[in-house]
């Protein structure tokens, strides 16, 4: 069901302080708290004595104390105090998860700790580039299986019907899709030539008139997505061409963290190559993105319910080639992990 040897987003960095914070990833309950040096500890959220969640306790210095009988654990998961006991048994410990902080997000490695390499965290192009603006990130909980979100982010065609007033318009209904497959990712993309700009982007384009538009949707194993929007003046766009300086680009980074089989936590932010220091533009983009993703939420939660209640087989269409290839690649990686390959 889940690929465990991977980095998953657990929270925004600003959400975790000295007060314990409970999160759930891949069906596992985890408590996060910040040590005195600012680093974050991530521990199994269950005291080994009577399984009270440690998130119901309190942080004391760099350790966390259970709120039931005072057992205290350091950031590595080892019990360092049992009130009234002279000896601490070796079994008095909880699992500790490797943590990394990057892009304002807290990442947890959910598999074998010795395999946790921060270099494997998704690399974000133009992060910290002063020529690119940032649309402040956000998150939401969606009551659906995470693979419905990966399906959605490998499906450029859905924007014509789910987001007609923002990302989509008539140009996104029927233009054929291209699929590119690599070992750890699948991309679905297309160029649409001499079309109207989609409503979401039109006010921010640095040129007037019709456009050549590229939709590029890529999802990497297990559930990390890049949606890249490119708008060039009509007649200047196309694969392999050098695009003019006025070309608008926006990269939307989307991170899906499975909570369990029925719920997913969705984190995102965008980078854009226009108005890099204009906070009003950043706020406008952030609000519009949130509204569009709320449209996705309604559809995906309904899909999850419908798939759970289905009484007849589903069908696949040509537009499902990307999502299907991704599911196959992920299933093979999960099977290899289980087999110890």
Produce a short descriptive summary.
The chain is an alpha+beta fold and 341 residues long. The chain contains four helices and 17 strands. It is elongated and about 80 Å long.
CATH architecture of the largest domain: Alpha-Beta Complex
Uncertain segments of ≥5 residues (pLDDT<50)?
Answer: none
Q: What percentage of residues falls in helices of 4 or more residues?
A: 10-25%
Count every helix, treating DSSP H or I runs of 4 or more residues as helices: 4
Distance between the termini: 17 Å
Shape, principal axes of CA atoms? elongated
| CATH fold description of the largest domain | Naphthalene 1,2-dioxygenase Alpha Subunit, Chain A, domain 1
CATH class identity of the largest domain = Alpha Beta
Beta strand count: 17
In percent, how much strand structure appears in the residues?
25-35%
The side-by-side strand order for the widest beta sheet comes to 11-17-16-15-14-13-12
**What's the domain count?**
2
| CATH H-tier superfamily of the largest domain | Naphthalene 1,2-dioxygenase Alpha Subunit, Chain A, domain 1
| C-alpha Rg (nearest Å) | 22 Å
Structural class: alpha+beta
Based on the model shown, name its key terms.
single chain, 341 residues, alpha+beta, Rieske Iron-sulfur Protein, Naphthalene 1,2-dioxygenase Alpha Subunit, Chain A, domain 1, 2 domains, seven-stranded antiparallel beta sheet, four-stranded antiparallel beta sheet
């Amino acid at each position: 069901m889940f690929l465990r040897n991977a980095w998953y987003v657990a929270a925004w960095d600003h959400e975790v302080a000295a007060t314990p914070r409970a999160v759930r990833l891949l069906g596992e309950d985890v408590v996060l708290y910040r040590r005195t040096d600012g680093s974050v500890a991530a521990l199994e959220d269950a005291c080994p004595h009577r399984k009270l969640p440690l998130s119901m306790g309190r942080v004391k210095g760099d350790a966390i104390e259970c709120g039931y009988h005072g057992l205290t654990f350091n950031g590595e998961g080892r019990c360092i105090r049992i009130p009234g006991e002279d000896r601490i048994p070796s079994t008095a410990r909880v699992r500790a998860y490797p943590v990394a902080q990057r892009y304002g997000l807290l990442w947890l490695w959910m598999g074998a700790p010795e395999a946790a390499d921060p270099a494997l965290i998704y690399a974000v192009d133009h992060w910290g580039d002063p020529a690119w603006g940032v649309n402040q990130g956000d998150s939401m909980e969606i009551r659906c299986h995470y693979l419905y979100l990966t399906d959605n982010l490998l499906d450029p065609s859905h924007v014509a019907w789910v987001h007609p007033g923002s990302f989509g318009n008539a140009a996104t209904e029927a233009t054929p899709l291209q699929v590119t497959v690599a070992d750890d990712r699948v991309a679905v993309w297309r160029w649409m030539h001499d079309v109207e700009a989609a409503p979401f982007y039109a006010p921010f384009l640095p040129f007037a008139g019709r456009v050549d538009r590229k939709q590029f949707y890529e999802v990497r194993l297990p559930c990390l997505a890049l949606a890249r929007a490119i708008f060039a003046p009509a007649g200047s766009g196309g694969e392999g061409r050098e695009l003019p300086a006025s070309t608008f680009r926006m990269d939307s980074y989307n991170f899906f963290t499975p909570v369990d089989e029925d719920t997913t936590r969705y984190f995102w932010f965008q980078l854009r190559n226009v108005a890099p220091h204009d906070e009003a533009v950043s706020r406008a983009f952030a609000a519009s993105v949130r509204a569009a993703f709320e449209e996705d939420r309604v559809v995906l939660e309904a899909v999850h319910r419908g798939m759970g209640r289905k009484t007849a087989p589903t069908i696949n269409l040509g537009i499902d080639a990307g999502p299907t290839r991704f599911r196959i690649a992920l299933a093979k990686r999960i099977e290899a992990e289980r087999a110890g390959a």
